[in-house]
Structures are given as C-alpha cells and as structure tokens.
Design goal:
Layout (H helix, E strand, L loop, with lengths): L4 H6 L2 H13 L7 H6 L2 H11 L1
Length: 52
C-alpha cells in the first residue's frame, strides 16, 4: 500500500502508529515498538515513506 506524504499527513498520529505497527509485522519497518510509541508525527511519516 503506497501512500503519499500528503495522505500520511492527513492521518492522526494514532492512525500513523497503527499503520507503522502493521508495517512492522510485515517486517517492512525498522523502528522498534518503543520507537513507534514515542515517535512524533513527522518521524512516523518519514519512516513510513522510507519503507515504501
């Protein structure tokens, strides 16, 4: 699932964290669960975009 930066920015932080956890389960995200929990919105967007 590819999403643009604009689409990701439209999501709430909680939605981004959920998405990040889903990507992590698919082994497509390098962040740890703790990093996902404490990352700010822009950090989550950056990580998700880098993994697409």
């Amino acid at each position: 699932m590819k999403m643009s930066k604009e689409e990701l920015e439209a999501l709430k932080v909680q939605e981004l964290r959920t998405l990040a956890r889903k990507l992590k389960e698919e082994h497509k995200l390098s962040l740890t669960k703790k990093q996902i929990k404490f990352s700010k919105k822009d950090q989550l967007i950056e990580a998700i975009l880098n993994e697409q």
